[in-house]
Amino acid sequence: MDFSAERPRAVLAFDTANEVIALGLGVLDDTTQTVRCVASKRIPAHRSSNTRLLPEIDALLTAEKMERADIATVCCGRGPGSFTGVRICIATAKGIAQALGVPLIGVSTLDAIAWQMHEAGIRGQALVLADAMRKEVYPVRFTLDDAGVHRLELDTVVKAQEEARRLAEAAVLLVDSADLSAEAAASSVRSADLFSASVEAATLSATVSDSSAEEVVSPASPTDSSARGAQLIIAGDALSKYADLFAPCGTFAPEEVWTCAGSGLLAALQAAWRRGDANPFDVRRHDPAFLLPVYTRLSDAEENERMRDVAKAQIPRNLHTGVQSASVPSHAAVGEDRDIDKGVQSVSFRPATIADVPTLAELDSQLMPDDTWSESSIRDDVARRDRTWWVACDETSNALVAYAGGWVVEGQLQILKIACEPAYRRRGIARELLAHLASDARDLGACECTLEVRASNEVAQSFYQTVGLAEVGRRVHYYRDREDALIMTGPLPLSVHDVAGMDLLIGQVSPADSSHPLILAIESSCDETAAAIVDGHGRIIADVVASQIDFHARFGGVVPEIASRKHVEAICGVVQACLDEAAEHLGTANLSWNSLDAVAVTYAPGLVGALVVGVAYAKAAAWAAGIPFIKVNHLEGHLYANKLARSDIKPPLVVSLVSGGHTMLVHVRDWGDYCVMGSTIDDAVGEAFDKVAKALGLGYPGGPVISRLAQQGNPAAIHFPRAMMHSGDLRFSLSGLKTAVVTYIHNQQQQKADLNVPDIAASFQAAVIDVQVAKATAALDETGAKEFCLGGGVAANPALRAAYESACAQRGVRLTMPPARACTDNAAMIALVALDRYQAGKTSGLDTDAAAHSNLEEPY
């Protein structure tokens, strides 16, 4: 299919929410708002979606004679479904859409199945049941008529047995109510809680606020003539597991519509387009960074926390991002902070449209009575090409709660309007709106921002100062009431220091004059989302890290489910910040994906749910950009991190890898040729630090706080065991030491004795260091290496670094240590490995998958 003579009009649609891969290709017609299905496939995946999705997409485009450049928009299923499956789908979709620079629109997987039922000629009351594991289902009811598909309820998750019982009772009520009045029958149904939304579903309105979600309409009364005597028609992959359970509840649709297919996704997209809820040609409205899965519950850790600690506080569940705000208190006494999570996490941002104008005008008259614009003025301004307007909407009510508008002229963004409802102020909404205006203005060539503010409005002036604006002049009698206006000007207030609620750490980079190849590397193995770009000389020209530590701290360790959800939310923003940082370094307005030579990613080892996000995104972006994909071993990255300190470092050398998940000594015979000389037989060093800190009530992460306290204590105050110090090999054991410390703390508490926390910290740390240094020197003696290096988060410990400095100096061994910031997970180290692999021609296939474990000694 040749689109060469016109703008791209193809839409690529896919879903992996269950055990199949759904693929669809369509053609967009913007004159009729039609999506014509060109190809639709349903491929059994059996937990192989991440290895098969991109090869299948590539094969489908080839079969239909389409090019990647023909794709005008990407449409993907948002679930609900398998957590991993949905993540693979959305991460892949984000990678493709961001690299192509096209809109990404999400549709409900269950709505897509309902549309397939509709296309199969099914009419009447329908139920889609998706398997939610844990003996649970995702049930959503629909009405299917000639006009289309009408969703009757919000997404929720319930026990399969409970849903079957409710449906069976509903079927009885439908029959028994045939002779009752409509009012009596409706009352019976309501009392049984069969056709009214449950309390749980009422909290989930955010899940249908996405532009692609079907409108929720009130269900028909069971006494309506259309419903009387009609049986519920049931579809969904849950029937494969619970067919016997749901058999009494209605009739089953043909099995071919139980799972999602490409045609259903395209039909759901067309419906959203025609409702005005989506525009497949509007990339600003459908920025890939905005899209998130359908969440029906928080992570298990957060749900348990709510039940245990905050049930009385009635803190709303943030089901938009699927992760509570890091600032949500973990106790019941929240007082005036009880609504803290109704802030930015429950507000969505989008470009304003003409349809918003009446609401904008009404809100403007309320919030800015002394400077109100007429509805016609706002309508004219929103429609102008040199204007940018954004709005913020409450995810629960979908009400417009804040807005901002700007005029881009002569390289400058002039802020025309910015206002927020009082109930939503002081929550970062205005700052985010300014960032969106600034991003648009930058794309239109602006490089600075200016505005006028009332001379008496000190609060607003203070806010503008925080985003980098400063007073440069005054307009006398500027306002209608003759009050002066202060002119404030500064750089564009771009949101480059915050992504998904996480501060971005921008690392130091090399001087300019970079050369190809330029390789983008991504790291997502644990709780940091990171991206970096390396040039052909091995110089890091951009290095960005978003740490999730605040989201995990109250749980005393990394929660895998929270980690993967935050990666999905953050990855587009982190990568874009990295590209922007590189562009600034190179002295260009922007760095396009076409300027890159490869995309690399950590594929192992680590948390699988976290790795999957990075791998799926990186593969998809590489495919969309038409450049090689490179997988990198995370542990090898920590070895290469030493190059960030000394670029000329060369093997042979010995490296001590000490982190929260690993403790090992590695003989680097050459880059890519490694021998693990010894590793821990139980706990890792970082894990031991965390557990001791937890026992002392010091919080998470434990390493930094133990290190700080140890500086004030006596390392000889308490004798803790040096496990395996004289084992005759290079293995480690930390479990016994950890137990000894915890036992000591317990005994002191039992005796009502005061704990000398600095002494405990110093004595514990000394026991760890003694063993680490003894084993390291033995490894140096065994190999004869004259170079010793460190790697991993614990390598940032000052006392450990000092001990290694002393030991190496005594032996005449050169010690190389990564910068403290590079000891923790980062993408710069991944980029350095990727550069070597790229130059050696070691690229990877689109069938690459994530792996929790890997053998550093085995080539890959």
Automatic annotation (TrEMBL):
<dbReference type="InterPro" id="IPR016181">
    <property type="entry name" value="Acyl_CoA_acyltransferase"/>
</dbReference>
<feature type="domain" description="N-acetyltransferase">
    <location>
        <begin position="347"/>
        <end position="493"/>
    </location>
</feature>
<keyword id="KW-0408">Iron</keyword>
<feature type="binding site">
    <location>
        <position position="634"/>
    </location>
    <ligand>
        <name>Fe cation</name>
    </ligand>
</feature>
<dbReference type="InterPro" id="IPR017861">
    <property type="entry name" value="KAE1/TsaD"/>
</dbReference>
<feature type="binding site">
    <location>
        <position position="638"/>
    </location>
    <ligand>
        <name>Fe cation</name>
    </ligand>
</feature>
<dbReference type="GO" id="GO:0008080">
    <property type="term" value="F:N-acetyltransferase activity"/>
</dbReference>
<dbReference type="InterPro" id="IPR000182">
    <property type="entry name" value="GNAT_dom"/>
</dbReference>
<feature type="binding site">
    <location>
        <position position="690"/>
    </location>
    <ligand>
        <name>substrate</name>
    </ligand>
</feature>
<keyword id="KW-0012">Acyltransferase</keyword>
<dbReference type="InterPro" id="IPR022450">
    <property type="entry name" value="TsaD"/>
</dbReference>
<dbReference type="InterPro" id="IPR000905">
    <property type="entry name" value="Gcp-like_dom"/>
</dbReference>
<dbReference type="GO" id="GO:0061711">
    <property type="term" value="F:tRNA N(6)-L-threonylcarbamoyladenine synthase activity"/>
</dbReference>
<dbReference type="GO" id="GO:0005829">
    <property type="term" value="C:cytosol"/>
</dbReference>
<dbReference type="InterPro" id="IPR006464">
    <property type="entry name" value="AcTrfase_RimI/Ard1"/>
</dbReference>
<protein>
    <recommendedName>
        <fullName>tRNA N6-adenosine threonylcarbamoyltransferase</fullName>
        <ecNumber>2.3.1.234</ecNumber>
    </recommendedName>
</protein>
<feature type="binding site">
    <location>
        <begin position="657"/>
        <end position="661"/>
    </location>
    <ligand>
        <name>substrate</name>
    </ligand>
</feature>
<dbReference type="Pfam" id="PF00814">
    <property type="entry name" value="TsaD"/>
</dbReference>
<dbReference type="InterPro" id="IPR043129">
    <property type="entry name" value="ATPase_NBD"/>
</dbReference>
<comment type="similarity">
    <text>Belongs to the KAE1 / TsaD family.</text>
</comment>
<dbReference type="InterPro" id="IPR022496">
    <property type="entry name" value="T6A_TsaB"/>
</dbReference>
<feature type="binding site">
    <location>
        <position position="797"/>
    </location>
    <ligand>
        <name>substrate</name>
    </ligand>
</feature>
<keyword id="KW-0479">Metal-binding</keyword>
<keyword id="KW-0808">Transferase</keyword>
<dbReference type="GO" id="GO:0002949">
    <property type="term" value="P:tRNA threonylcarbamoyladenosine modification"/>
</dbReference>
<dbReference type="GO" id="GO:0005506">
    <property type="term" value="F:iron ion binding"/>
</dbReference>
<feature type="binding site">
    <location>
        <position position="825"/>
    </location>
    <ligand>
        <name>Fe cation</name>
    </ligand>
</feature>
<keyword id="KW-0819">tRNA processing</keyword>
<dbReference type="Pfam" id="PF00583">
    <property type="entry name" value="Acetyltransf_1"/>
</dbReference>
<keyword id="KW-0963">Cytoplasm</keyword>
<comment type="function">
    <text>Required for the formation of a threonylcarbamoyl group on adenosine at position 37 (t(6)A37) in tRNAs that read codons beginning with adenine. Is involved in the transfer of the threonylcarbamoyl moiety of threonylcarbamoyl-AMP (TC-AMP) to the N6 group of A37, together with TsaE and TsaB. TsaD likely plays a direct catalytic role in this reaction.</text>
</comment>
<feature type="binding site">
    <location>
        <position position="703"/>
    </location>
    <ligand>
        <name>substrate</name>
    </ligand>
</feature>
